[in-house]
Amino acid sequence: MPSLIILICTTTIASAVMWKTHIYAVPAIRPTLVKSQIYTLVNNRTLVDAHLNKLQNAGKIRLLKLEDETDDSLGIMLSEDYIASFKDIEKFTSIVLTEQRALCVNKSTLLKTFSDAQITTLVQSGALTARTSGLWWVSSPCLGRFLKAYRTGQRALLAMLRRQRFKELLLSDIAKRELGKGAILGYMYHVLAHLGSGTLVSVPTASGPLIRLRMG
């Protein structure tokens, strides 16, 4: 069991560093993992959730709500990348990394530290996104750009498989195809996310993993 916990941590941190140096060619997007990707790599969702919460409570990462119908999951940013996505609002990053670690925050809590005008600035900057009246998701100024690329790639991969007669492709065949303009995160990023969220399944074959659209 301890080795599994170490694997989760290593996967989370090492993958973030890898994507930072190799995948993210667009400076406006900060390295962001998706929890469903870790579900694909580690077959124990309860332990993954517990360890991610532990990392967030330790101030190592920030969990962010992803509002996307293809994947009801969470985004994960290393604290250093989360802080780097902000300008001139260090007080906010300090609070949401060390005190207010929930996915959302209400107005009464914010008013303990910020004025109404400052809250408006946080919303306008992308640090907060509306959930309901007086309640916001904790976000990042870069999350909108990430979500645009993420949604584009997620939908493109599903569309690619739906065009196939049997709604499936070998992973090696997916690697040879283009997901299209705007899908800048790479095919494996989306394969892992879809497998973890359950929209796709992977079937072992002699020719390698067969990625199939989950039906029903």
Automatic annotation (TrEMBL):
Keyword Kinase included in the entry's annotation: yes
UniProt KW keywords: Kinase, Transferase
Gene Ontology molecular-function annotations: kinase activity
Protein's GO biological process: positive regulation of Ras protein signal transduction
InterPro entries recorded: STK19-like
Keyword Kinase applies: yes
TM spans (from-to): none
Pfam family, one: Stk19
Family named by the database record: Belongs to the STK19 family.
Protein's name according to its UniProt entry: Serine/threonine-protein kinase 19
Organism per entry: Clonorchis sinensis
Taxonomic lineage of the native organism: Eukaryota, Metazoa, Spiralia, Lophotrochozoa, Platyhelminthes
